[in-house]
Amino acid sequence: MTSENLPIVVIAGRPNVGKSTLFNRLVGRRQALVSDQPGVTRDRKEGEALMRGRRIRIIDTAGLEEAAPDTLFGRMRASSESAVSMADLVLFCIDARAGITPTDAHFANWLRRQNRPVMLIANKAEGQAGTDAALEAYSLGLGTPLALSAEHGEGISDLMGEIVDRLPDAPRQERRRRRDEGPEEAEEQEERPPGPLHLAIVGRPNAGKSTLLNCLLGEERMITGPEAGLTRDSISVDLHDEHGPIRLVDTAGMRKRARVEQHLERMSVSASIEALKMAEVVVLTIDATLGVHEQDLQIARLIEKEGRACVLALNKWDAVEDRVATRKAISDRIETSLAQVRGIPVVTFSALTGAGVHRLLPAVRKAYEIWNSRVTTGELNRWFEEMLDRHQPPLVDGRRLKLRYMTQVKARPPTFLLFGTRAEMLPDAYKRYLVNGLRETFHMPGVPIRIQLRGTKNPYADK
User: Fold this and answer.
1) Half-sphere exposure of 205 (CA within 13 A, CB side)
2) 153 assigned binding-site residue
3) Is 318 annotated among the ligand-binding residues?
4) Is 411 annotated as a binding residue?
5) Could you identify which of 116, 126, 160, 206 might form a hypothetical disulfide with 149, taking C-beta atoms 3.0 to 4.6 angstroms apart as the criterion?
6) 343 annotated as ligand-binding
7) For domain 197-371, which CATH number applies: 3.30.429.10, 2.60.40.1530, 3.40.50.300, 3.60.20.10?
8) Local structure of residue 241 (DSSP, 8 states)
9) Does 19 count as an annotated binding residue?
10) Is 14 annotated as a binding-site member?
11) With bands split at pLDDT 50, 70 and 90, how would you rate the model's confidence at 140?
């Protein structure tokens, strides 16, 4: 069953009642950022949980607050309301220790009008005192509150059982498939389709990453606005193009380490780096009106270090006055500063208007194809002999290195193993010569290329 067909459980409530902590408990891992600071969650975050053999889609939302629609908190509330509108079950969380607030009462009344099944959760109800305080939640008129402590794991198993009992039955065709095939065959068939392409969108704050994701999805999935740093956590969504599924991750903006002072921002940057490491292709989004900043180059170097394919996305292209000069300046800076990934593809567009965005995913697919490319050993060694004839290996300690042959040991990224006498002493300059030759001859622009060295042992060295 695809994630789109899974039953949806939405966690809602005012800020700082422990929604993200509960989300992490239900999905079984620390997927959402958690902090004592209220309002950490801004964009809704999705994950999957397995409860009593059923896969369930869990959505963590921003805190419900009264605010004007054009403000940040108003946009956060609109995103949460959108999630509630598609829920099969809403977990409405309150803080048992704080008691019922006017905000809780207001949104409890609002939930009753949404015509959605609601389960009342009295969180932070540790011990007997917390359980007694949870009884006050009866006044909200949403039924019997379930007292639990998401932080300490108390009551979570009871909650999972209640969730499964209140959700609609599994679709008829899914039940029939399980009955006819048995659990093992059903599991094998689910694993048969190829996995999605993992794509991360990274960049500095306010480069337009979330606006780009919204444009690709065709909906206002992420909260956007003129404020820098709106996205705090890495948000994963599923997308399909003509070639198949894509797992798309929008990340928080990454500033210079010296400027990252708050603990929350450090957690956000760490989540962005982790998303980059898990990706296969990374879209580095740059504000074209500002040009390439040193921090953009640092992010690009991190992408290369992690061995990921990269596509350079120049956003806000509609606001650039002299496009020819800007494109040349950016290209010159990239070629000079990122020689290790020479030929990186560049796509210009405006995520706000959508102009040119259609060129991005084809460039991503092409970079992914190159990142997975392989060269046969025969082709590789014919090329290798030509490179040796053109420029002989250098002298090291007065003796010339004897390089014998190469083979490709893996792709993702393309990695080659070079054998020869004292090959491990090969200078970096000659390695760069070979890498540039591989990139040009076998058409591998813009992806990291690794060359590993293995020397042959002299059998008389120890005698």
Assistant:
1) 16
2) no
3) yes
4) no
5) 126
6) no
7) 3.40.50.300
8) E
9) yes
10) yes
11) confident
